[in-house]
Design goal:
Elements: H1 10-19, E1 48-53, H2 59-66, E2 77-79, E3 85-87, E4 113-118, H3 128-144, E5 152-154, H4 155-158, H5 172-177, H6 197-204, H7 211-223, H8 233-247
């Protein structure tokens, strides 16, 4: 077992203190105004979960990066290879994990999501202990927020061409089997004549202005395939299947 000095979490603790209202004045206009507080409000609630891999050789170095004020990058959680879960940012705060990103009409995923980093260098399989902890964390998050099944995404999905994590080795099907993300198993029903897979990707949420990068990101996520080849019948069939799953009415539990 390795240890990380708790002093590295001072910034996160200060952020949490601000959010819990320890005598902090509300953010207000600089113009003359009268403060008449209303009780009719609540805190920020995430609508997406974005998964990443750290690209680091171990969690010690990942934590050092994610808590370094000079690096200006963070996430709400880090799940180490051995399954240890670290929380770095209060869920009500906006962590800096997605960067320039887009999904559907959302152009700032940092403001509407929770970011989870996975201790992985980008070339390796995800250990069982890590996957089990991630599934438990997602179940805990899902129990507190009504995040749509289709809104569990990878960094590569929301930043195609710029990012590709959590990569082609990530077990998306296993997550989808638990209700965290979409999935279709082959064989897929053939797409109807005239079905445009690139328009289908846009309907899923991918950035239509970066269609070829989006197609590659889609393949990494849903086919475990890193390819720049033109779209083919299997892509079209899978995209259509996923769209049908996305638009299907929720099933009762």
């Amino acid at each position: 077992m390795w240890r990380f000095h708790p002093g590295s979490f001072v910034i996160s603790l200060l952020t949490a203190a601000v959010l819990t209202g320890c005598g902090i004045e509300p953010l207000r206009t600089s113009l003359a105004s009268t403060w008449a507080p209303s009780p009719n409000h609540d805190l920020r609630r995430p609508d997406f979960v974005i998964l990443h891999h750290t690209g680091s050789p171990d969690a010690v170095r990942a934590l050092a990066t994610l808590t370094d004020p000079m690096r200006r990058v963070s996430a709400h959680y880090l799940v180490a290879r051995d399954g240890t879960i670290f929380q770095l940012v209060d869920e009500r705060a906006r962590a800096w994990h997605a960067g320039a990103s887009r999904w559907g009409w959302q152009h700032d995923l940092n403001s509407v999501s929770l970011g989870i980093e996975l201790d992985n260098d980008g070339t390796e399989d995800y250990p069982e202990a890590q996957v089990r902890s991630l599934l438990a964390l997602l179940a805990d998050i899902a129990g507190r927020y009504s995040i749509p099944v289709a809104n569990f995404l990878g960094h590569g999905d929301v930043a195609p061409g710029r990012k590709f994590d959590p990569g082609s080795r990530f077990p998306w099907k296993r997550l989808a089997d638990k209700g965290f993300g979409l999935w279709c198993d082959p064989p897929y029903p053939e797409a109807p004549a005239g079905f445009d897979p690139l328009l289908g990707l846009a309907a899923m949420g991918y950035d239509a202005s970066r269609s070829h990068a989006s197609l590659r990101a889609f393949r990494v996520h849903f086919r475990g395939l890193d390819s720049d080849a033109p779209s083919g019948p299997e892509d079209a069939a899978l995209i259509r299947c996923l769209l049908l799953r996305k638009n299907a009415p929720p099933q009762p539990h």
